[in-house]
Amino acid sequence: MFSDNPVIISRVSAIFDAENIEYIVLGGLASLFGGGIKGIQNRVMVKSEDHRKAVKLIRELGMENDVELKL
Fold this sequence. Notes:
Blueprint: E1 2-3, H1 6-18, E2 23-26, H2 28-33, E3 42-46, H3 51-60
Antiparallel strand pairs: 1-3, 2-3
């Protein structure tokens, strides 16, 4: 999942924590050093075995328009 919105990243992180889905947020430092450049997005990565569940949660919560999902 990609997003440049820190609120969305935080919300997704909280959802994954609640559902015991392991994840990592990549690109946070690049966004800070980039000075808010829109081309540098944060990525929330999950294990391949959790991918289907993670995508399902994002869709069930109506957040699929707030993030760029990689299927």
